[in-house]
Amino acid sequence: MGIVNLFGDLTYEGGAAINGQFLGMLGASAAAISIIAGTGEFLGYALRPVAGWIADRSGAYWAVTFAGYAINLCAVPAMALAGSWELAAALIIAERVGRAMRKPTVETMISYTTGELGRGRAFGLNTALDEAGATLGPLIAALILFLRGDYRTAYALLTISVLLAIMALIAARLTFPVPERLEQGRTATAKTLGLPYWLYMGAGALFAAGLLSYELGAYHLERTRTVPSEWIPVLLAFSTGSGVAANLILGRLYDWSDKVALTVGIVLSACFAPILLQGGFAMAVIAMPLWGIGYAVQDTLMKAIIAGLLPQGRRGLGFGMFYSAYGGGWLLGSVAMGLLYDRSTLALAAFVAAAQLASLPIFLLARREARRETRSNRSQ
């Protein structure tokens, strides 16, 4: 699945690297771009419980995964045909809906390998492959812009990575038709979705509210002329390339000390927006690895945490519900950011940092409750 995600993220991030600028070119405002990104992320998370529940109830993990990837991937090259920002927005949102369909099933299947590898390492390796694709995508988009200067051509050529992702997905299905058989021992400690799970959900939503979308960040760099437009995808590639290392390091650090991994990841992520929004070109370059760290917290640490709380048979729903709340936080945060951006970038930077830092004590409280619950279960 890591190889599938490599080509999938190459497609998505290649498109995401130019979505903000493309929407702006078609006439969308900063508020519209932020709300589009937030709405897409919200639906991309809000629909996950439905997909997870269907997969858990039916056991049709592969069928749900294939349907999700088909929508998720095909919406990106279709952007080449968009004649208005409203149509482009619909395709961006459709891509997120497809992602919502396949994400819980993919995370559930990966969770079956955590008994052997360790939760941090398993999700870290998978996310590192994601980020490798996410690094190549913007570089390819940037190269096309350098050579052709045409956003539509960049979108259209991403059809190649769509085909490669689908081929890899078919190979994965043929190789591992029943992913549950990969699990060794029990990786989950909870029998129900208890207090630690709900605390983690609240902390995740708060962290998401402070996660600045790259679309708005790219719009800012373009609008302020901080970075030439053709270099913006290169900066995204730099941030995702840094994210490869961040996922591997934070994943291994999580297996050693989840408390340290969470604290380091969240504090560094909270520094991204203040540095990006208040500085020039050099500060934008410095900020990019911090953006990669923020997504490592989301894509490695949070998944490792939830995998350790969910029993087999409820993981699809559990992952889906967690990221549904995460998407709700993202939507509210994105709306607030879009409105704040037009008034004060200083206020926006303060909002982003405050939201993410406020999530840390809740994460640590949830961790303490999870340990207490585990000790209680063992004594019974």
TrEMBL record:
Q: Where in the cell is it found?
A: Cell membrane
- In terms of superkingdom, the source organism counts as Bacteria
The record's listing under Pfam families reads: MFS_1
Q: Which GO terms describe its cellular component?
A: plasma membrane
Q: Does the keyword Cell membrane apply?
A: yes
Query: Would the keyword ATP-binding turn up in this protein's UniProt record?
Result: no
Query: Membrane topology for this entry?
Result: Multi-pass membrane protein
| Name the UniProt record assigns to this protein | MFS family permease
